[in-house]
Specification:
With 467 residues, the chain is α/β, with parallel strands linked by helices. Helix content is 33%, strand content 21%. It has 13 helices and 19 strands.
Amino acid sequence: MKILLTGATGYIAQRLLPILLQNGHVVVCCVRDKSRFNFERYSWLNLTVIETNFLDEQTLNQIPEDIDAAYYLIHSMSTSIGDFAEMEDVSARNFRSRIEQTHARQVIYLSGITNEKKLSKHLNSRKNVEEILKSNKYALTTLKAGIIIGSGSASFEIIRDLVEKLPLIIAPRWLNTRSQPIAIRNVVDYLVGVLNNKPTYNNSYDIGGPEILTYKEMLLRFAKVRGLKRRVWVIPVMTPRLSSYWLYFVTSTSYSLAMHLVNSMKVEIICNENRLIDLISGIHLIGYDKAIKLAFGKIEQNQVASSWKDALTSITLNKGILHHIQVPVNGCYTDIRKMKIENIDRVLGNIWSIGGTNGWFYGNWFKLFGGVGLRRGRKNPTELFAGDSLDFWRVLLASKEEKRLLLYAEMKLPGEAWLEFKITKDNELIQTATFRPLGIWGRNYWYAVLPFHGFIFKGMINSIAKS
């Protein structure tokens, strides 16, 4: 089959794509920015990548007409640009309009469980998108998932942050809300299982794991699996806004995402019974504890295939990575350091391992800034690709052939910042920090931190070159 895969650089799609290719399908991947697609991971025999923006209907003409099925895996909840519900509405309408012009017989949509009468804005939007995607031109199969547990998933990483950082968890009352978590492997099993499965056409199914747990139980069970003693104290007086700030400061989530998650966590997410598992052979539901162990197995083996943190959050970077690879010069402040090196491979290895648990080689100097970005870490301790998050930086370019790593700051600054490491043909390491100020506050910021540059940037290049 020829399959269209939307959101191909997203968390779910990166797990689904290898399975579709292994099953012999021809896959057309839709991405907003080709620079973010990791071409090295896949064989190109059955794969095509096209640039589309479902908010811009004109870009959808590249979608081929001869597709047999399409996966709709687009959401905008983590965006900090505009109203995410309105964006999801527009994207869904543009998608449906274009797919109706193709030969597609089936569209598969991954949504959230929406069985409660009173839903959050996020879940209401998911429900609205399902209605928009319905069509007389193709069959719609909707899978509604609960909390997804897997290495790199937002839910898993938030629970991990809370459990591993807080011996005593003082939490809002929504921790008593019940949910039905599902392992990422089972989500992929269902997504593959309904493909070209005619009994599932024009039907909607809730998918969840074998257990119903409160968020409090999930935290305590997580701690037990990890061999940690934790206590949870639920207090009734914490408002949604305070709850959002609480998640923002303790975990690696952004404030906008934390706010939407808190509103959704007040809603019970429990599956209605259905016979979907009988329509798909070979699915064995994974329990919550085992899902955690499987996730850490991937983490410990450095095999995390995708992470929710890979999503672009910067308003500026919404224009695309290529828009920022050419570092500006005019009107910018720079700090340039150079050093002769002897062992190129060792220095490249040091550059490619900066950030996350490895630190920044010189006193972890980014702790001076703090913020949510510092808690994002990195997906793999030794590999970097364009689009990866790296603490509060975004990787714009990572080329060992060119011996160049270019980062763009996603922290809140009165301006824009780039950090570049490059090794020349003369075996010289060049480290360049570039700052383009925004107004007088940006200029004041640069001069305020200028006294630190002498030992911070000098210490970092010395450590990278000699460590």
